Amino acid sequence: MKAPAIRALACLxxxxxxxxxxxxxxxxxxxGGRVWTGKGEAMEKADVLIADxxxxxxxxxxxxxxxxxxxxxxxxxxxxxxxxxxSHLGLAPGELDETVTPLATDTEVLxxxxxxxxxxxxxxxxxxxxxxxxxxxANPIAGPCAVVKLGRHTVLKRxxxxxxxxxxxxxxxxxxxxxxxxxxDMVRQALADARDKPAGSGPLVKVVGGEMPVTIxxxxxxxxxRATQLATEFHARASVATVEALDKLADxxxxxxxxxxxPPLGAxxxxxxxxxxxxxxxKGVKLAFSSLAPTTDExxxxxxxALAAAAGLPADAALRALTCxxxxxLGVGDRVGSLEKGKDADLVIIAGDPLDIAxxxxxxxxxxxxxxxxxxx
Amino acid sequence: MVPVVAxxxxxxxxxxxxxxxxxxxxxxxxxxxxxxxxxxPVDSGTVLIADxxxxxxxxSVEVPADAKRIDARGKTLIPxxxxxxxxxxxxxxxxxxxxxxAPEFRIVDGIxxxxxxxxxxxxxxxxxxxxxxxxxxxxxxxxxxLKVEPQAGTVELVTDCAAVRGQIGVPAGDTxxxxxxxxxYAAIRDALLSTRDDLFTRGKYDRDVARYDKxxxxxxxxxxxxxxxxxxxxxxxxxxxxxxxxxxxxxLKGEIPLQIExxxxxxxxxxxxxxxxxxxxxxxxxxxxxxxxxxxxxxRHVPVIVAPVSLSFSGxxxxxxxxxxxxxxxxxxxxxxxVALGVGGADGLHSKFVRACAAVAAANGxxxxxxxRAVTVxxxxxLGASNRIGTIADGKDADLVLLDGDPLSTLSTVEMVVLDGAVxxxxxxxx
Lengths: 377, 431
Fold this sequence. Notes:
The complex is a heterodimer.
Chain A (H helix, E strand, L loop, with lengths): L1 H22 L4 E8 L7 E9 L2 E6 L9 E4 L4 E4 L1 E6 L30 H8 L2 E6 L7 E9 L5 E12 L13 H17 L6 H6 L5 E5 L2 H13 L4 E5 L6 H4 L6 E4 L8 H4 L1 H7 L4 E3 L11 H10 L4 H8 L1 H6 L17 E4 L10 E6 L2 E5 L4
Helix pairs in contact in A: 9-10
Chain B lengths: L1 H12 L12 E9 L7 E9 L2 E6 L9 E4 L4 E4 L1 E6 L31 H6 L2 E6 L7 E4 L1 E4 L9 E3 L4 E4 L2 H6 L2 H45 L23 H7 L5 E5 L2 H14 L3 E5 L7 H5 L5 E3 L21 H7 L4 E3 L12 H10 L4 H6 L3 H6 L17 E4 L10 E6 L2 E5 L5
Parallel strand pairs in B: 1-4, 1-5, 6-7, 11-12, 12-13, 13-14, 14-15
Antiparallel strand pairs in B: 1-2, 2-3, 5-16, 7-9, 8-11, 9-10, 16-17, 17-18
């Protein structure tokens, strides 16, 4: 009978030691880089001080306590870590959807996360430090999405957004809904119930209360129109993710307050798609990029921004879409997306302009840990 | 319509003879930094173009008085980019046919001269593409290199036979079946073995016939031309049906390379074994796990077309690519392998991302100079087309791209594209 007790003690010791290690995360000073904080112009030759996994100071000539490890960033760009606004990375195939229940309001996608995977490490090396982990598209309400970190501590926010699916992919022949009107009715009813007779504090209640954003997956332009109507009707903070109708979003989203989650642009080479983010930004629509991994390459978030920039998206808007705008769309702007005192220390150091695909990522820092450092730097 | 089609057929039937010439007159591009891809860059030089070809390159080129001059000061001039694995000009179904062994098929017989998007690809500085038969067949046929035309209706061939395309383990890769993997290797080996046997039998018969003819002539001379009296030798027996595959025979003779599409280590090693056994010229295509065995590839001097570079460009990532790494090209090049990059796009339009692919490879460790070579001169050499494309040199096709900055930086834009000596795209001219 003593064995379990000893084991428990051992576990406790490990846990305590673990905590101790976290508390002593080395302080870091990223020195002399071109720092783009996400708030205003880039600062030349500026420093970022990191302590206990958080940003302690940003500015010129930041003084660091003795013993602080210094990373020389002279001649390099220093930015907030990139945020992938829609991904299934780290989910085992076949674990994306619970297809029996169409309103999977409480199905936590996070429970299927399998973070110890090569593709997760590869994504981190490409500068992605957080991502919205989304379930698949087989249910009208596909469940809450978590924002996860690609570093040591995986969960940034458990119920960050609620994923709605207004597309034919959520229709089934053997369970409701079987048609688009049926789907709309079902989702609208669920939202109306949450608004009119709120019970508890489930995701739907948070959505109609404006606490929790919705990310709405759409196929065609008519799906997008329905999504914006729904968002307006229920005063929900919404963003739409579409591949097919990306080039038409600029005709619909402006003025609705609904944001756009752009698909990987490398997969949509037509000029009208590459130019879509630029057109959206010009009309004041907030946007973010997504990888849709593992269907496409998890490492191409920056590639999408660079392709959009080459096709007319202003550089500053492209960088914001990769960082602070994505964080705001996902409702985690208080923690990530910009380099400000008190925010999570998620940084990317790039040897060149971040929107030049050829510029290598030199270093990725997540929660103050150096997650990746390029050989020879 | 008829003249267009006639012109097209003429172009298709006469490889090496560009249909669209540079037009009359001489073109001089002056003052650009010229990356010739053969020798060192010229900092402020001139390229002289006539009859669709480069006539002179250098810092001090005399420009004839009647030449049309283009001021390119402050800009960078590079050879037209090459996508070493494209689907431009192909119908989608071209890639799904599944005859087991069809080395005699030619991809040029299946191209669509009215294909869309060629102008859009050209505007990104891509002037030539390598197109290949589908990979459902074990040996799908011969591949081709085509120019990227600004207008539909014409297609110009650079070569109609860059290589014979085969695959090892490709469909097997989608199910990860070891048996299917071995089957593909064994079937290609078998085809090469039987072609070699047949070549041997044919060769022996030809030698026997020659010997017979000589002996018969001698016997006749001895008998004073009297056929009846002469002691004539026995005529050698003709071997059965001629199963010699002319195309595979050319591979065995070393005239054209066998281009094996293989992704995983086991399949790549099997392809290398074919080279060891038959001494054939081999090109590896795809090769996504090549970074695990760079020395095996390098010591056999096997060039590699790394494709896809990014899985975003190639469409949904199939299992077959195995452990894809963006550092693949860098690792192979460091080991001394001659590397070209292919977009390996899901459709033809993806070929516009050639420069983006070179940039991705560079960001992941490929030497910047090599990254540019991988989409110009190296690609041309590996595809057997360096006599015409891939460099800026006297006598080469005048396919040139003018950029406003570092060609590898995706912040730079393409300002002008010259195809066969004619300005095919000029930024701001049409849109």
